[in-house]
Batch of 2 targets.
Target 1
Amino acid sequence: MTEHEQVHPTPEEVGAYYDLMGPFYATLWGDNIHVGYWTGPDDTSSNVEAQDRLTDLLISKVGLTPGQTLLDVGCGVGRPAVRLSQQTGAAVVGITVSADQVARATALAERSGVADRVRFQRADAMALPFNDASFDAVWAFESLLHMPDRAHVLREVWRVLRPGGRFILTDVTEERSLSAEQRALLYGSFLLRSLETIERYPMLVTATGFIVDDVIDISAQTKRTLQYVSDALTEKRETIRTLYGAELLATLEQVWPILATIQRDYLGYIVLAAHKPLSSAL
Ligand code: SAH
């Protein structure tokens, strides 16, 4: 393998990555594993506040009511699912490829008093273990970037969503072309499989049969995220050293400032809202 050859992580490898990095994310990001949304230069929100603000944007787009059920594709450690359930009264089934995340998310739902309607299980989005038309809504919140085939996952989402149901996705996008070296560092650090552009995304979603209702470019609002984590790594370096040892700490300290500049200069972020039409030929 040449130095910059691209890796193609399997869902199993992504699951093992999140099992390993669970304590890292818990220490530096908390119970959300997605970008923050800052309203502007004067916004002094913490990372958690900014991350919850993005979850609230998705909750407003998905429009669920009590008794309805959302499928959360790539649920992380469950904070977005729990928040959605608390705010709307809806039920959630969350899936992840990481056993550690299932355990953390289940514990969070129990602590938050919503375990009766929010549950998590290990499953691969490439082959969803659910019946056709069994969910009122689906979201894929910053998870498609790890998956082997976006178009295939979109077809799976389409299949399990009831006609008329909403589908919301968010994703990191590549707005300026990365060099081979930058791509290898970024993909290797997060076990990414591929990145799309904001411009191409709507076509990808309509190709499945969805009607796209809204495309929101929030690239500018998310730019502080990786710098925030990079700074937090400096503050929490003793905790990370205890968890992972001096060698991995040294690697993380070298890599994170570079990841932060890659986000700032090359990456974007899309929120896309769509729905499955009530009747269609597809
Ligand atoms: N949506 C969560 C977590 C985002 S991190 C949040 O906002 O906090 C990415 C998530 O995608 C992880 O939970 C990971 O396990 C999941 N994921 C990656 N590939 C997957 C696949 N093939 N099937 C199901 N989940 C997957």
Note: The chain is about 45% helix and 20% strand.
Target 2
Amino acid sequence: MIKAIIEPFRIKMVEPIKLTTRDEREQLIETACFNPFLLRAEDVIIDLLTDSGTSAMSSDAWAALMRGDESYAGARSWYRFRDTVQDVFGFSHVIPTHQGRAAEHILFGIMAKPGCIIPNNTHFDTTRANIEYNGAEALDLPCKEAADPGTPHPFKGNIDTEALEKLVAEQADKIPLIMVTITNNSGGGQPVSMANIREVSRIARAAGIPFYIDACRFAENAHFIKRREEGYADTAPIDIAREMFSYADGCTMSAKKDAFANIGGFLCTNDAALAHQERNILILTEGFPTYGGLAGRDLEAIAVGLHEILDEHYLDYRLLSTRYVVKHLDDAGIPVLLPAGGHAVYLDARRFLPHIEPLQYPGQALAVELYIEAGIRCVEIGTLMFGLDPHTGEEHPARQELVRLAIPRRVYTQSHMDYVIEAIILVWERRNEIRGMRIVEAPQFLRHFTARLERL
Ligand code: F0G
């Protein structure tokens, strides 16, 4: 039997990549103040900054764009979108938004109040920011296995249910909702098991607290359950997805991830009174409830993408292609987060560059070198991103120094990934020559986006 896993699609349209030389890239990254966010995208050869909004749509999704009904109210495209979301997610109320954080903004604007605590396996930055913006506390309760980047565990994205149960027992009145992010992006794209989701639901329901899922990468999570959790090997990904959501009371979703869309998102709930309040805010900030922040054509593309993403052959290819990169790096002795997650590869910069102090940003130094070596763009998730306390102005080393290489869906082929692997190995071989960095100028909030740096 043939073992090779092929991309389960053919390429119909291509976008040329501009190739640059190493000397040009040295100059370009210096001009961008050693911050890959400040590069022009056309100067990047392989762009692994994010898997969000960067997917390649299918011919069906492009065809669906032409069907977009742009009526202000009650458009055909809205009904197609709503029915698809309900078919997969099962919630009674669907509120369309322009992307995930808009759904978070509406949800937490209503539910998060000063003094409240909202637990999650690990909050994504925008989720945390929206909670904190409303004066509440965003509490991360990752499972214990998540702390060690080197240990393989099938469901490192799990929430620590013991800690959650204790928190609920002591302070239930302060918890307006419990959240679980699938897969756990900030925790390395690691999946959450069905058993864990079920247990969170039990804890939440016993205490009368709503349980929400941050569903951005729900299809990848469903497929990890299929491949790793006992009892699911013969269940279709869509049925696993339906079961996951059946334990929850609502969800937030960015269609820029597991819906193959370039823009879009939604908020769901089973609570009619809450949905009424949410729609009122939606009208103020996003748009009429039958389009939210989206064009009719976007609603169509999302409806197509939500079904395509649950294709088992696609999901096999997706998880295996990420694992392929991780395996090659691990075999070469490169410190990489194990096991492979769904949407991204995470290098452990603390072990990659142990001679660089956290306050000299080893992750950023590594991201810069990957650009210079091969024109690869990726993002530091470490002290540059999380080290500054915006309230006190003090700087501390972050919990981990990671570099994330997020893989856009259906965009790059295996030979692109071979190129990435080779580039990382070349940087690994000259790691001792790499120096740390210093911030020249940075804002107080979300400084990694615009910080200007220089080499020490
Ligand atoms: N939740 C998670 C888990 C995410 O990964 C993201 C976005 C959001 C919410 C917000 O969604 O971007 O549509 O507003 N993650 C992107 C990333 C930006 O690169 O990981 P959005």
Note: Residues 59-308 form a domain with the Aspartate Aminotransferase; domain 2 fold (CATH 3.40.640.10).
